Amino acid sequence: MRRSPVRILTVLLLITLVGCASIPAQLQLISASVEQDKTTHHADCLFPATAALSVRTSQPALNPQHIAVLNWNAYKGQRTNWTQDFRLLSDAQDLILLQEALLNKALQASLQDQQLHWTLNHSFLYGEHETGVLTAARVSPLSSCGLRTTEPIIRTPKTTLVQTYPVEGQLAQLMVANIHGINFSLGTEIYTQQLTALREILERHHGPIILAGDFNNWSEERTAVLQTMTHQLQLAAIPYFNHNRTRVFGHTIDHIYYRGLEVISHQSIDVNSSDHNPMLVLFRINPALLTLIQQ
Questions:
Q1: 93 to each of 62, 99, 114, 280, how far by Cα in Å?
Q2: Domains of the chain, each with CATH number or no CATH
Q3: How many CA atoms lie within 13 A of 228 on its CB side?
């Protein structure tokens, strides 16, 4: 059964009332790599205007002809078959973007087994485990930062994670943003503030961009706010015709947007291991599009 906002509100209110949701006092990024154990640090999004360009680096980089992406709201991995589905779906992906990721032993083991570099922007403790948006990749990010916005009614944060990655043979880095949109608010003021804060980061980047997540754009008004932002950033949407993406009140809420890339293939898969269906997209860098962006 798909969750409705009413059901989500009820569940999260109960979590808050019984004191199970412990919220960090300030933004926390938790990360680990193949070479380094889990660490916690603080990194607000203060990229300089020149962050899009870098010198060529000798570290492993993404293949510009094959950038495979998984986007999925994991529903905190609460369903018994989630770990198995995640391992199957993530096995061939270069970038993995999760919302409602629960940093339990099973998820950490799967990330470690696949030798992934990962970062989680911590929203709150769910039981004894951190939860939030998590991005994992086959290569280490060059930079990482986070944003968080407090839900005005239930007072738990929704988080956003922004990272840059090296691309083979390219001076321009790939910027990847992973967002879980504000869900419960009267009107669109807080929702607009969340997307505006992200837009101000992305608009300073002059290279390719992938923006993905659970945007919670479950109304006409919210969808209009989202479309305004993506239009301002010249981001394209995946050209879905028939798909299995999750809908709330008739609106599709999971999206992958992009700029400076071409879509080779895409699909959304119907699963019962989460209340959201995963999205898979294969991209390649388009040099001609990058030239237009950087002019």
A1: 11, 16, 10, 9
A2: 5-294 (3.60.10.10)
A3: 13
Ordered DSSP codes for 23-49: PPSS--EEEE-SSS--EEE--B----T
List, in sequence order, every residue forming a beta bridge with 70; answer none if it has no partner.
Answer: 96, 280
Residue 1, pLDDT > 90, answer no
Q: DSSP 3-state helix, strand, coil percentages of the chain (rounded to 5)? A: 25, 35, 40
Does the pTM surpass 0.85? The reply is yes
Segment (H or E) for 287 = helix 287-294
The per-residue pLDDT for 53 is 40
Count of other CB atoms within 10 angstroms of residue 8: 16
**Which residues are CB-neighbours of 214 under 8 A, at least 6 positions away?**
73, 99, 100, 179, 180, 181, 253, 254, 276
CA distances from 8 to 24, 103, 255, 285, 291 (A): 21, 20, 20, 38, 44
Residue (of 180, 107, 117) closest to 144 by Cα position: 117
Stretch 181-192: mean pLDDT, rounded? 92
Q: Is the pLDDT confidence value at 138 over 90?
A: yes
* 155 has pLDDT over 90: no
Separation of alpha carbons 171 and 53, rounded Å: 6
Q: What number is the average pLDDT over the span 135-162?
A: 94
Average pLDDT taken over every residue of the chain: 88
